[in-house]
Design brief:
Elements lengths: L1 H8 L2 H9 L5 H9 L6 H13 L3 H9 L13 H9 L8 H18 L12 H11 L4 H24 L1
């Protein structure tokens, strides 16, 4: 509970900065920080998910720009880079064929939807992510935007929980 207490008590600008490492959409960080103090981690995580699910597409697009492609090796020491490496850890076991198919699939997805393929990688195997990428290539834009927003909410929830746990 000490990390949650610290988060609740820190200056608003610091809370916003830390939340932006969980979700780069400016509206997200401001709205979640404004809801402090949170009585427990679950309430904070639920609020983070709700705010993310309610973001307009322009804000979701800003958040997407901070996410690497599935299968890309992420460099850097930022909180975002560290989270991406941890979340995509299963890619370390991907064979060359799956990696090549993900590269091709990412390109096809970006050509179709004009943004990075976003999926909660944590807890998924490379084969599962490839299967999901292929499934989602068949979506229309509206359906895919809803799925992207949901995936962003799930990723954000995991990162916010890590932030205060």
């Amino acid at each position: 509970m000490a990390l949650l207490d610290d988060f609740n008590d820190e200056p608003a600008d610091l809370a916003v900065q830390r939340l932006r490492a969980c979700n780069a959409a400016p509206r997200f960080a401001a709205e979640v920080a404004a809801g402090r103090p949170y009585p427990d981690v679950d309430t904070l995580v639920a609020r983070a998910e709700a705010v993310t699910r309610a973001l307009p597409w322009d804000d979701v697009a800003i958040a997407l720009a901070a996410h690497p492609r599935i299968g890309d090796r992420v460099d850097g020491a930022s909180a975002e880079a560290e989270s991406s490496r941890r979340e995509q850890r299963s890619m370390d076991t991907a064979d060359d064929a799956v990696r090549a198919q993900l590269v091709e699939g990412n390109k096809a997805y970006e050509d179709r939807f004009d943004h990075v393929f976003l999926i909660r990688a944590s807890g998924r195997s490379p084969d599962e992510m490839l299967s999901e990428l292929r499934r989602r290539l068949a979506h229309d834009e509206e359906t895919e935007r809803a799925e992207v927003t949901e995936q962003l909410a799930q990723i954000t929830a995991l990162r916010v929980k890590e932030l205060v746990s």
